[in-house]
Amino acid sequence: MEQELKRYRVFEAGLILAFSLIIIFSFKLQIFEGKKYYRLAEENRIKKKYIMAPRGKIFDRNGKEIANTRPGFYASIIPALIDSFTIEKLAQILNIDKSRIIAKINLEKNPYVSLKIAHDITIAQLSLLEESIEELRGIEVGVEPLRNYPYNELFSHALGYVDEITKEEIKNLPSYKTGDYIGRSGLEKVYESHLKGKDGIEYIEVDVRGKEVGRLSEYRPLPVEPGKDLWTTLDLELAESTAVFMKEYERGAAVAFNPQNGEVYLLFSKPVFDPNKFISGLSDSEWQALNNPKVAPLLNRATMSCYPIGSTIKPFIALAALDANLIKVEKTFSPCKGVYYLGKRPFRCWKIHGQLSLIDAIINSCDIYFYQLGRFIGIDIIAEYLNKFGFGKETGIDLIPENRGILPDRKWFENKYGKNWTEGHIFNLSIGQGDILATPLQLACAYSVFANDGKIAIPHLTKIDRKQKREILIDKKAVETIKKALSGVVARGTGVLARVLDIEICGKTGTAENPHGEDHSIFVGFAPAQNPEILVCVIVENAGHGGSIAAPIAGKIIKTFLLKNKLITVK
Amino acid sequence: MKKIDYSILMIAIILSAIGLLMIYSTGGTGYFLKQFIWLGITFIITILISQIPPRIWMNFSPFLYAITILLLFAVLIFSTSYPKRWFNLMGFSLQPSEFAKLGTVFILGYHLSHKKRLENFKDFLLPLLMVLIPAGLVFLEPDFGAAQIFIPIMVAMLYWAGMPGEKIFIFFSPLISAITSFSIFVWLGFISLFGLYLYLRKRTSDILYGFIANPLVGLMTPLIWNSLKVYQQKRIISFLSPWLDPKGMSWQIIQSKIAIGSGRIFGKGFLSGTQKRLEFLPERHTDFIFSCIGEEFGFIAIVVISLLYIYLFYKLLNLARTTKNRFASLVTIGFMTWFAYQSFINMGMTIGILPVTGVPLPFISYGGSALLACFTAIGIVLAISKTRYEY
User: Fold this and answer.
1) Which residue of A54, A350, B56, B177 has the lowest C-beta tally within 10 Å?
2) What parts of the sequence cross the membrane (chain B) (predicted)?
């Protein structure tokens, strides 16, 4: 009997021990660690998903969309759910490197966030993914608004382009995340914060395979804030026409703006690139082609390339001399015999002009007159005035970066050539050769001093309020005198090919010698001469004389503009 | 005093009702209806069985055991599924391993009730053979979860029949050798302590057995380990280090712990378990149904179910003690051990303190054969309660 009771107690104790263990460990799980496990359960099912904000549209001055968005398919993953099989399969379907996917996964700290790994996937890739979506865990495909440039390469330099942000950049830009786009150049870069908008956040419930089951009402979503639209001053038709006018030339730039208020109509640079190509990502060979230094399609030649400005400098030298009261308009120097000797060194003119006054020297672009005028007024006056007109400085356009060019002065020459730099340097400077360099936009802005009665336009591409021009101290009469000369250049001088019907156009040709081959052809001009509406600067690289190549292109641009705005009519 | 103890039936029915509720929550209407039909059939059978005097079961024990063994052979030969666990019968599947538990309890009860004295190693041999035949056949299906149940049933019935505890410990010491043999130092530690114990007992047969069997098993186990199926090895490994492979076996344990833990005190509410609904939980209506209970009804439900089980087992234990008939008493202990061991192993698995062995929760988990086998046992226990004062 005692034995039986003992056995009974052993069973009893065993039962109590076993179920006490169950209750104690359940207590530990549910009461002590309940909060932790509740959080883990929530993390299991709740995933954060970003909804891409559509980038703001960009309009031309007439309300035409020159940048908008289009729907594109993306593939995204939830790192917490993904396995190596899925990564492999995904890499194979999307034709990207496995390590790139893994790198992106490692970048994101929260493994419960849906992570975009490929933008703009093709329909074929999409259907392959959809086919195998049952066996792939944690994969999602969807539609997002992608940047689209309806005119492809037409505005490549003015608008710039966007592409995917790199992991290094994200470290300094906490508001960005993997898979985001960022403006890289042009207006896309300058107005990035204006255009970008704010991505929405959605909390979705997923099942064990990572498939979306539904949205969660108990977590407040963050609505998408679309990027703001940007209204530019650019003119679509002018850009289209210019592309045609420049068709036969490989490299060059053209800018056109309203000299009175600085509104830029045209900012054209060649060679061009197609910014749409960046959206789905470039291949290595495509990227290398874009960075080929000999062609440099990404370089905005209108604001970033520095050219010797050739004879287009002459009106500024003349204006400086008049304004500083060093000469009168009637001033003459030794006649032009085609060559002028400084000591034993010959300085040539492109023609034998004979004796000329200041006005005629500008109209006929006589080098020998300006060699002597430059020497007469001296380096300090020249440098002071060129600085006033904006050479060697940024124009202030809303594009970054901007090249300042080079404006040599006495100190600059001394630094470069030592104490014994010669008058020969001033000779060269006076006809825009040698050391002075400027961007096409800088040159155009400097010419607004003539178009604007002594005020320098500050160019801008958007209608956002900003300063339109800056005043400089200059004798209005002197400006008027030179302006007459510029009118003569087009009417009967070197720039006759820029003539448009019977409109009075002021302008100046330039032929820039350069070490890369044939001369650069330059023309700067504005019209109508009274109350000018458009100021154009055209540079065609290695094309020849300014009067023969750049001048007719500028003329056509002016004509297109004036016709379009009904400032002239064709009879 | 001829009265059936209906409180035993009541608890079994309450547990089954909870099971039905949770099967609806985890498996939907389809599984719910199937289980409901099974429960109806089962209930009628239980009432019928409770009218059969226990003496008849004893007389038919060898025959019933033979039938269940034959069924186990048959399922190995004729089953078309893999693992070879089921027969398909008119839309319902029958699992012979569940009925083999009944047969084995009968034959052990039959054999042990005829034994006057149990004290020598040779008294282990016949019971061990009776158990190893069904256990081995079930293991071959393969169904390690069901195969393991036979051992504790035998141990409990031997002990209840009078085998001294020390003897059982010495007899099963090779099992401890087997487990500890994975680490040579642990095994050496066990062998030295065990040797000291045997030496102090000063019984030649014990010493002889202990010192031959233990080293033998200790060396054999690593060899047997390598012959195990990969998934069986994985289950054991994942139990030993659950965070090693979060997407594999231990993933189930982790998800089960998350489900139970996240239920906290009162649970997320009926049908609202997210771990269950979004299928993070594996085997929701069968092996891991307890995790869903923990998730949807919280700690309260776990305590209630544990208390219900304890009450049932306590009833059975007391019945076994008060029953005059030795066969009836042994069979009751066998049934109680079966239910208690299985529920402990299952619950322990879901809360992560025991390895995943694929054992259903008695009365609650989905499965007709298990339900029928359990309630057949309950029917027999009811009949025993009616005749408990008869010899």
Assistant:
1) B56
2) 6-24, 36-57, 63-82, 124-140, 145-162, 168-200, 207-225, 288-314, 326-344, 364-384
* Residue B183 to residue B187: CA distance in whole angstroms: 6
- Peptide bond preceding A401 in cis form (omega within 30 of 0): yes
A468 and A439 belong to one structural domain? yes
Distance between CA A190 and CA A401 in Å, rounded? 9
Per residue in B237-263, is it b (16+ CB within 10 Å) or e — as a string? bbbeebeeeeeebbbbbbbbbbbbbbb
User: Which H/E stretch holds residue A97?
Assistant: none
SS3 letters across A548-561:
CCHHHHHHHHHHHH
Question: How close A101 comes to chain B (CA, Å)?
Answer: 20
Which chain A residue's Cα is nearest to B273?
A41
Number of Cβ within 10 Å of residue B140's Cβ equals 15
Q: Are strands A200-206 and A46-51 parallel, antiparallel or unpaired?
A: antiparallel
Residues of chain B positioned with their CB less than 8 A from the CB of A213: 278
Task: Say if residues A81 and A137 touch (Cβ distance below 8 Å).
Answer: yes
Same-domain status, A162 and A176: yes
Domain ends where: A209, A231, A253? Answer: A231
In sequence order, the 6+-apart residues with CB closer than 8 A to the CB of A241 are A556, A557, A560
Q: Do A162 and A242 fall into the same domain?
A: no
| Helix segments in A150-268, DSSP class H | 156-159, 167-172, 186-190, 192-196, 236-245
A44 contacts in chain B (CB < 8 Å): 255, 258, 274-275, 278, 280
pLDDT digit string (tens) for chain B, length 391 residues: 467 888 999 999 999 999 999 999 998 899 999 999 999 999 999 999 999 999 999 999 999 999 999 999 999 988 877 778 888 877 778 899 999 999 999 999 999 999 888 888 888 889 999 999 999 999 888 788 888 899 999 999 999 999 988 889 888 888 888 877 777 788 888 888 888 888 887 778 888 888 888 888 877 777 777 777 777 777 666 555 544 444 555 678 888 999 999 999 999 999 988 888 888 888 888 899 999 999 999 999 999 999 999 999 999 999 999 998 999 999 999 999 999 999 999 999 999 888 877 899 999 999 999 999 999 999 999 999 988 777 6
> Residue A507's beta-bridge partner residues?
A525
Residue of B nearest to A9 (CA): B317
Closest-CA distance of chain A to residue B278, Å = 4
Residues of chain B neighbouring A30 (CB-CB closer than 8 A)? 260-261, 263-265, 294, 298-299, 302
Residue recorded with tokens 């042009």: A186
- Are A34 and B265 in contact (CB < 8 Å)? yes
Query: Are residue A252 and residue A180 in the same domain, yes or no?
Result: no
The ipTM value here is: 0.91
Q: Is A213 in the same domain as A357?
A: no
Which residue in A has a C-alpha nearest to residue B261's C-alpha?
A: A30
* Chain B residues within an 8 Å CB radius of A207: 278-280
Do A317 and A389 meet the contact criterion of CB atoms below 8 Å apart?
no
Q: Is the pTM of this model over 0.80?
A: no
Q: What pairs with residue A347 in β-bridges?
A: A340
3-state secondary structure string, A346-404?
EEECCCCCECCCHHHHHHCCCHHHHHHHHHHHHHHHHHHHHHHCCCCCCCCCCCCCCCC
- For residues A540 and A449, membership in a common domain is answered with yes
Q: Which domain holds residue A111?
A: 47-231
Tell me whether residue A338 is in a domain.
yes
Domain count, chain A: 2
* Same domain, residue pair A249 and A221: no
Q: Which helix (H) or strand (E) holds B238?
A: helix B230-240
> In whole angstroms, how large is the CA radius of gyration of chain B?
22
Contact B173, A18 (CB under 8 A): no
